[in-house]
Amino acid sequence: QVQLVESGGGLVQAGGSLRLSCAASGRTFSSYAMGWFRQAPGKEREFVSAITWSAGRTYYADSVKGRFTISRDNAKNTVYLQMNSLKPEDTAVYYCAASPNDRGRYIPRKTEYDYWGQGTQVTVSS
C-alpha cells in the first residue's frame, strides 16, 4: 500500500506561483505513475498532470500546459507540481494520486489511480 501526503497549498494572488509536494511512502514501484488531480466546488475531479516514475514522462491537461511543471525526486519519493501564472480558475483542492499503470492512454483516468492523498487547498484570488 502507498500513502501519499500533499503539502504546499495556500492562498496566492492571480499571476503568482505555488509549489505543491507529494511525499509517498509504503510500497512503490518503478512502473507507477504519480499524478495530480484537482476538484473545485461543484465540479468533478479532473486530471491536472502526471509523471511516470521510471522514465519521467510528463503529462499535462490542456488547461495547465505551459504554466505547470511536474517533477520528481526519486531519492525523496516525492513528486512536485510547480504552478506558475496561477489563475482564479485554478482554485481547487489538489490531490496527489498514485497509479500502478504508467501507460500513457490511462494516465488521465482517475479510475486508474489506486491511492490518493488527503488534498491540499489552492486558492487563487483575483
Tally of individual helices? 0
Question: What is the terminal separation in angstroms?
Answer: 40 Å
Residue windows where pLDDT falls under 50 for at least 5 positions: none
Q: Approximately how much beta-strand content do the residues carry?
A: over 45%
Radius of gyration: 13 Å
User: What is the share of helical residues?
Assistant: under 10%
Task: Please summarize the sheet with the most strands.
Answer: 7 strands, mixed
Question: H/E element string?
Answer: EEEEEEEEEEE
| Counted beta strands | 11
Shape: globular
The helix/strand class is mainly beta
Mean pLDDT: 94
Please tell me about this protein's structure:
This protein is mainly beta and 126 residues long. Helix content is 0%, strand content 51%. The protein is built from no helices and 11 strands. The strands form 2 sheets. Strands 2, 4, 5, 6, 9, 10 and 11 form a 7-stranded mixed sheet that branches. The protein has a 4-stranded antiparallel sheet with strand order 1-3-8-7, with no helix packed on it. A hairpin with a 6-residue loop joins strand 4 (33-39) and strand 5 (46-52). The relative contact order is 0.31. The model has no long low-confidence stretch (mean pLDDT 94).
